[in-house]
Design a protein that fits this description.
alpha+beta; single chain; disulfide bond; protease; Trypsin_dom; 7-stranded antiparallel beta sheet; binds 2-acetamido-2-deoxy-beta-D-glucopyranose; 15 strands; TRYPSIN_SER; disordered N terminus
Length: 274
């Protein structure tokens, strides 16, 4: 019993640590995923943090419009410069399809207070618009305030190794998954938390899960999409560490709860939607 409590405590601490830094080295992966084909997910981008000489993958994002990317709020931290890379499957390859654009502005939701909390959503305005192609396409938004559950697919360049040894894939990973109902998400998370505060918010969150197999998001998948019926249902927000535990759901920001917020921000800067 004591040992179990201790493990739970570590899991939550790490989950929080991951969200504080958003760093791919701390903890969210697509566990049990498979290689995506080139162009299979034309709406996903790699959001990268840039140092003096190099830029590194930090989070996933989804293309909403040529100059607009949707991601998680915890993917922003004050200081570093950011760039967005679209049109890629192998993150290291210099292919003709690859488009790299600097980030103009990161709009983090005004009510996101950091860590494992609701409203974990952000919009990125790019300095230059992306050019759509077979490999670069937008993903539609869900109906406002809709609640989807059912088949879905998660994609990302997050960690594919175990817990503390971080191994990141070159090739975009994806995983077929199931979006659960709020009741199912609540129950699964409660069962893992053993009485600790449950951060799951029924309006702001949605989760995916598989009670038997070891699957889920991990470090570096943050901000990336879960897509069901052709729309971006959620943005990877947090999960339990170690990643991919059986019966540990992956938690996403429920995009349908933020449609007005998204439109207000995109409209206020005179962006064209499509
Ligand atoms: C990805 O591209 C890099 C650079 O071209 C190459 O070294 C690496 O082997 C590629 N990875 C895969 C999985 O093809
Ligand atoms: C913002 O733009 C969207 C998409 O073009 C439109 O549906 C919505 O009505 C606009 N909202 C406002 C407040 O202008
Ligand atoms: C948006 O466009 C309208 C009409 O062209 C203009 O009046 C308004 O000042 C613009 N708003 C911003 C924030 O640029």
């Amino acid at each position: 019993m004591k040992k179990q409590d201790y493990l739970v405590f570590v899991e939550i601490l790490l989950a929080v640590g991951n969200l504080v830094t958003g760093a791919p080295t701390d903890g969210l992966r697509i566990f049990g995923g498979q290689d995506a084909a080139p162009g299979q997910f034309p709406y996903i981008v790699s959001i990268q943090q840039c140092g003096l000489f190099t830029c590194e993958h930090y989070c996933g994002g989804s293309i909403l419009a040529p100059s607009w990317i949707l991601t998680a709020g915890h993917c922003y931290s004050y200081g570093p410069k950011y760039q967005v890379v679209a049109g890629i499957q192998n993150i290291s390859e210099k292919s003709e399809w690859r488009q790299t654009v600097a980030v103009d502005k990161f709009h983090v939701h005004e009510k996101y207070i950091g860590n494992v909390n609701p409203n974990d959503i952000a919009l990125i305005k790019l300095e230059e618009p992306l050019t759509y192609s077979d490999r670069v396409q937008p993903i539609p938004l869900p109906e406002p305030n809709s609640f989807y559950s059912g088949d879905a697919v998660v994609s990302g360049w997050g960690q594919i190794s175990g817990n503390f040894f971080s191994i990141y894939p070159d090739t975009l990973q994806f995983q077929k998954s199931t979006v659960l109902t709020n009741d199912e998400c609540m129950a699964l998370i409660e069962a893992k938390l053993h009485g600790q505060r449950n951060p799951y918010d029924v309006n702001s969150n949605v989760c995916t899960g598989n009670p038997v197999s070891h699957r889920g998001i991990c470090s570096g998948d943050s901000g990336g999409p879960v897509v069901g019926e052709g729309v971006v249902v959620g943005l990877a927000s947090y999960s339990f560490i170690p990643c991919g535990q059986a019966a540990a759901p992956s938690v996403f920001t429920r995009v349908s709860n933020f449609i007005d917020w998204i439109h207000d921000h995109m409209n206020s800067t005179n962006a064209t939607m499509y």
